[in-house]
């Protein structure tokens, strides 16, 4: 966790948490049993699946199939993050 220096005197200090992909995946696995909201659980599971296919796809030379999977995950994540009246469609 870093503590960026405030830009001006009247600003309160803020904290920034930075985590890498593998650490993020481990964190999500750790918190998954405690997440109660089904929609959030679905997002975590989708994110973990996305990360896993990226790890597997790293050694495949980024084939056309890998790119199709990337696009598929992108579309699913985009749909999962829709808010407001569009979420009801």
Output the keywords:
mainly alpha; 3 helices; 54% helix; single chain; extended
Summarize the structure in words:
The chain has helices at residues 21-31, 38-57, 64-80. It is mainly α. It has a domain at 36-88. The longest helix is centred in the middle third of the chain and has 20 residues, at 38-57.
Write the topology of this structure.
Elements: H1 21-31, H2 38-57, H3 64-80
Helix pairs in contact: 1-2, 2-3
Helix fraction bin: 40-55%
The parts where pLDDT drops under 50 for at least 5 residues are none
Q: If you compute it from the alpha carbons, what radius of gyration comes out, rounded to the nearest whole angstrom?
A: 18 Å
Structural class: mainly alpha
Tell me the total number of β-strands: 0
The geometry reads as extended
- Spell the H/E element sequence: HHH
pLDDT averaged residue by residue: 82
Q: Outline the biggest β-sheet.
A: none
Number of helices: 3
Strand content: under 5%
Cα(first) to Cα(last) distance is 39 Å
Task: Summarize this entry quickly.
The chain is 54% helix and 0% strand. With 89 residues, it is mainly α. The protein has a domain at 36-88.
């Amino acid at each position: 966790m870093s503590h960026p220096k405030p830009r001006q005197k009247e600003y309160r200090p803020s904290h920034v948490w930075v985590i890498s992909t593998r650490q993020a995946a481990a964190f999500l696995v750790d918190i998954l049993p405690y997440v109660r909201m089904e929609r959030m659980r679905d997002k975590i599971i989708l994110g973990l699946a996305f990360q896993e296919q990226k790890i597997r796809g790293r050694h495949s030379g980024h084939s056309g199939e890998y790119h199709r999977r990337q696009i598929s995950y992108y579309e699913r994540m985009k749909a999962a993050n829709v808010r407001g009246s569009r979420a009801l469609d």
